[in-house]
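Request:
You are asked to prepare a plain-text protein record giving the amino acid sequence and the C-alpha cells, at your earliest convenience.
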Amino acid sequence: MGGWKSSAACLLVILLVVFGSACGREQGAVPATLAAINPSHGAQGQTLAVILTGAHFDSGATVNVGSTSIGVSGVTVVSPSQIGATFAIASGATLGATSVSVTSAGTVTNAVSFTIGPPLTVASTNPGNGATGVPINQASIAATFNQALDCSTVSTTSFTVATAAGARLTGTVACSGSGAIFTPSTGLVANTLYAATIGATVANPLGATLSGAYSWDFKTAATAPVAPTVVASQPARNATGVPLSQKLTATFNEAMAPATITAATFTVAGPGGAAVTGSVTYVAAGSVALFAPTAPLAALTTYIANIGTGAESLSGTPLAANYAWSFTTGATPDTTKPTLLSTLPLNSATAVPINQAVSGTFSKPMDPNTMDAATFFLTAPGGVAVPALVTYAAVANTVTLTPSANLLPNTLYTATVTTGAKDLSGNPLGSTGVANPWTFTTAAAADTTPPTIVSTNPADAATNVAINATVNATFSEAMDPLTITNTTFQLADGGGLAVPGTVAYDAVNFIATFTPTAKLASNATYTATIDAGATDLAGNHLAAGLVNNPWNFTTAAAVLPAVDLGAAAPFGGFGGGAGMTNQGVLTVINGDIGTTGASTVLTGFHDPGPGCTYTETPLNVGAVNGLIYTAAPPPTVGCPSEGTAATMAIASQAAAATLQAFNATSPALMPPTVAAQASELGGLTLPPGVYQSASGSFSITNGDLVLDARGNANAVWVFQAATSLTVGIAGPTGARNVTLINGAQAKNVFWHVGSAATINAAGGGTMVGTIIAQAGISFSTAGNVALTVLNGRALVLTGPVTMVNTVINTPLP
C-alpha cells in the first residue's frame, strides 16, 4: 500500500509536470498581433501621436517602422492590446505606404500599413497676398490648397476675414475639392486693408492639417470698380534715351487677374513688328505688370509695347481697349544707382500718428518685384518686426508700408529700405540721399483729420488755358499714392465725357497731376474732379478744401509756347564742340555730360564706366553719375565703349536739341508775357511768365531771386537775355541763390542767354533752371572750395562749360 501510494504520488507529480508544462507552452506560443494603427496616414514634416491596437503586447514591446524617414519615440504599452507612440516624419520623407510592426517578447508581429503624404499647404489665394485695388464688390475670398480637403474642418471658425482693426466680416464659407471660399454678407469697404486667415485645424481627408494658421493681406480699391485701365507705364509714352537693360512696367487702376497678365497680353515689338522675347510677371502689391526682355534692347531703336484686352480685372472685366505706347532706346545700359529722395515720416520726426503709413520715394522708377517686406520693413524697440503690407506705386516711384494694426503710442520706430530694392535696370539702392534707416516717434493718438485740396491748376473758372496743359491739385498733406489714380482723379469735357489721360503723384510736394493723352479742344470748358476715394497715409478720405472741387476751366484758342529739350534732357552739362573742364575734387554731376568735340576736350571727369577717366589729376576729380558722350577717341584704353561713333551720335542729337531749345526760347518764337524787365532780378519774387531783359542782360546780385508757382506745379519761367547772365558778386559772402516756392519746379525754369553766363564766381550758392547759352557757362573760379550748386542743366551751343567744385542735379523730366 505504501509502495502504491508512493508510486501514485509520483505519477501525479509526473502528470502535473507534463500537463502543466504543456499548458504553459501552449499559452506562451500565442504570438503578439497588430490589428491597426490610428491615424494610418501622416504628412511630410509632421509630428503626430499614433495608437497601435492588437493583442498580447508585453511591457517591453517596441515599435518598428519600415522607413528611416520616420523617427519613433515615446513608446508606451498602455495595455496588452494597445501601444502609444510618437512619429516624427521627415520633411523629405518618401511618399507612399510603409510597414509598421511591433516586437513583443522577442517576436515580430504582423505588419500594418502607414501612408506618408505631402503636407497640406495653401497653394494660392484670391485676392493674392498683398493685392491692392481689389474691387469692393469682390464676390468671394478664396484659398486653394495643394490637395483635397476634409470639408468638415472648413467653417466660419477656421476661415475668417477681418479688417486691420480686427473687425470680423460676416459671411458664409463653402468647401469643394481643394478650395475653400468665404463669401461676405455685404460688399467690402473701399480703401481698406483686410486680413484673411485659414486656421491650423483645416485638414485633408487623411487628417493631415496645416502646419500653422495661414494669413494673407489685401487692400480694396478706392472706389467702385469700372473697366480696368493702364494709368502709367515705364518707359513713359514717347520716352527717349531709354536704357538698354531696362524692364518695362504697366500699372493698372485696380487689381488684375494674374492668369490674364501673360506674354500673350503684354507684348513688345521692335522695327518691322519683330517680337521681343521676354518674361511677364504680375505684382499684386501695386497692380503692376512687368515685362523683362530676355536680352538687352537694341541701341537707338524705337519699340512699341502693348497691353491687350485679354488682360482682365479680378471681377473678370477686360480692358476696354488695347493700351499701346512707344519709346526709343539710348546708346548704353543704365548703371546709375537709385536713391531715396524723401521719406515719410521724416527722419527723427515726432508726434507721428499711430495709424500713419510709412513711405519712401525714389529718384527713379523701381522694379516692383523688389518692393516687399524683405526690402522695406519697420521695427519696434528690440528689433521686433512690425507686421505690414508693402506696396509700390509706380505713378509716384513710392513704396508704402501699411502696418496691419495701429502702432504703439509714444514709441520709437526704425524704418529701413535695403539694397535689395532695385531699379528697372537691376541697379541696387545707393547710399546717397536722405537718412536710411530712419527713425520716428509716434504720438499718443491716431490721425483723424481728413486731407484737403489747397490749390488747383488751372484755378477754378480759369480761362485761356493752353490746350496742351496738364491739370493738377496740391493737397494739404501726404497722400496714399495708390489712391491717386485716374479712377479718383478725372477730367471731363462739357458733355460729361471722360478725357483719357494718365495720373501721376509727386510724393515730395503732395501734387497730383492729370496729363491728357491728347491735346484738349480749343475754346472748350472742362471739369476736373478728385473724389473722396483719395486718402492720406492714415486712411482719411479727402474732404472739402479751400478751393472748389470739382473745378472748371476754359481752354484758349491755340497752344501756348512750350520748351521741349528732347535729346538734351538727360544732360546736366553739354559743352558744344569746346567741351567741359572741372577743377577741384568736390564736383558731382547727377546726369549725363557731353560734347561734339573729341574726348580730349573733357578734362577732370570720370563716369561709372570701367576705366572711363577724362584727364583727371589728384586735384581735379569730377564724378559723373550718368554717362559721358563725346567724339573719338576713347578717353582711355580701358574704356572702349566711349569716344566712339555711337557716343558721338548721342552727342550730336543733344547738340541739335540744345539748338532747337535755344531757338524755341528766343523772343522771336516765344514773345514775352510781361513788360520788359530791368536787368536786376535780385530781391524779387516773380510769378510764372516769359521775361525779357530791357538792357539785354540779367543779373542776380542785389539779393536772391524767388520764383513763386502759386500752387501750379506746371508753372514755367523763361528769362531771355540777349547778351549775358550774371549771378553773385565778388567776396566770401557774394553767392546768390534762386529759390522755388509753392510748387515751383527746377525742370520748368529756363535761361536763354545770347552770349555767356557766369554763376557765383566767388563760389557757393544755388542756381536753378536750365541755362542755354550761346558762348559758354562758368561756375565759381579756381581756388574756391565752397560748393556751387545748379539744380538744372548747363547747355552751351558752341563754347565750353567750366566749373570748380560744382554740383549739378539734372531734373527728372
